[in-house]
Design goal:
CATH topology: Trna Endonuclease, Chain: A, domain 1
Number of domains: 1
Largest sheet: 6 strands, mixed
Distance between the termini: 25 Å
Strand content: 25-35%
Number of helices: 3
Helix content: 25-40%
Length: about 120
């Protein structure tokens, strides 16, 4: 794509898209170590709330991840996760927002903000 650091620093939207793709690929690699079946999906409702990836373990345990290319995170970053939780109330287990911060932070009983660096 012929991008440099300066371009990515200027265009945070593009950085976010690349980061989402990278994280999705990392989760797919790590899923190979899971002893059961792992499937990945994308969620978007009619109001355009979205979450990706949505991860299904062994056909019934649902978790989801929102990726944010930001060092700060707020409750509004969890809107899509809450929409998914309400849609999957009987199979949803946990949700997380990966962000460019340093600390794991609780945002609900089953939702957390987690530093991107934690996936390694």
């Amino acid at each position: 794509m012929r991008l440099d650091v300066a371009t990515l620093c200027e265009d945070r939207r593009l950085l976010g898209q690349l980061l989402e793709t990278f994280i999705y690929q990392e989760f797919q690699k790590q899923a190979l170590a899971h002893p059961g079946e792992t499937s990945f999906y994308h969620f978007r409702d009619r109001d355009q709330y979205e979450v990706d990836p949505v991860i299904e373990f062994d056909g019934h345990h649902i978790g989801d991840i929102e990726v944010k290319a930001s060092s700060t995170i707020t409750g509004s970053d969890f809107k899509g996760l809450h929409k998914l939780e309400n849609s999957l109330w009987n199979t949803f287990t946990t949700g997380g927002a990966l962000y460019d911060g340093e600390h794991t932070l609780p945002f609900a009983d089953n939702m957390f903000a987690v530093p991107i660096s934690a996936i390694w």
